[in-house]
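One such shown below:

_____
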Amino acid sequence: MSKASITYLPFGTTLVGGAIAMAILDLLVKKNVLTFDDVQGALKTAQGCLINSPTVTGSIEGARIIEEIREQFATRWQKQQAFL
């Protein structure tokens, strides 16, 4: 078991979850299961769900994290397209 501080555990969990989400979404696009636009739309929907629930603890921070994932995914996608 990790010796991570309990203070940083939620942050670390978020980072891991975001990294896994990015990897899965990237794989689904590469295998032509989803398009780039599908991924951006799904992330925007997820983000909107969190923004529309401001009374839920952590929802705004979650929405910000999803925005970061959207931006990272778009940047990676643009770089990949530049090499094609």
Observations:
- Helices lie at 9-30, 36-51, 59-82.
- Residues 21 and 69 are 9 Å apart (CA to CA).
- The chain has a mean pLDDT of 85.
